[in-house]
Amino acid sequence: MRIKEVADLVGISVRTLHHYDEIGLLHPSDTTEAGYRIYSDKELDRLQQILFFRELGFPLKKIKEIIDSPSFNQNEALELHRKMLIEKRDRLTRMIRTVEKTIQHHKGEIVMSKKEQFEGFDFSQNPYEQEARERWGNEAVDKSKDKMGRMSKQQLTDFQEEFNDIYRKLAEVRHESAHSNIAQERIELWYNALNKIGDYSLEAFQGLGQMYVEDERFTRNIDKFGEGLSVFMRDAMRIYAERNK
């Protein structure tokens, strides 16, 4: 298939395919005398893998490393994609239900509990796992996933509520100084909770706090518990890490 045919089939731009070629992520199998890039079934399979990883939030540089690794197994990757996409679908379904109930709540048709208000917001695991792997390596993330995988469904639900409860407690004191005793006591709850599922060093803990502000996805979700909470947590996490080194 020519590049324009591939672009039309997949729903991406020709410019994107040119960029993938330039960075060594996806080369055409051949080029005609007229200069047209040609893609075979092998390249289309690779493109499908690339787009699955992109849908799950992996950066292009990391996708190239993964796919080009000698240990990469396409079938294993597809199973992982399937599992992660199902989890994403289920979480979005829960959030849609929460939105619908919130609309009814605002209309006065129902009364929502605090727990119902935040159903679908899952902070029990890092939804941006790739960033964590890039910054701190695989070990801490793998330990976290292993611990989560050993939990029952009820344990996971309880743990998610514990995380949300800590967010709410932090939101209550977000207008206090990040140096204050109450701020440091509550950010310690967060540090201890994270280390129930992972192995976060003080350095990693401080770096995670910085991500809460640098990555708008984190900021948007965290600040739903209270305007400015992400900045407050970043500052409190930095101070906690410095004091306990």
From TrEMBL:
Residue span, HTH merR-type domain: 1-69
Identification of the protein by name: MerR family transcriptional regulator
Pfam family, one: MerR_1
SMART domains given in the database record: HTH_MERR
Record-level Gene Ontology MF annotations: DNA binding; DNA-binding transcription factor activity
Key words, A-Z: Activator, DNA-binding, Transcription, Transcription regulation
The keyword Oxidoreductase belongs to this UniProt entry's keyword annotation: no
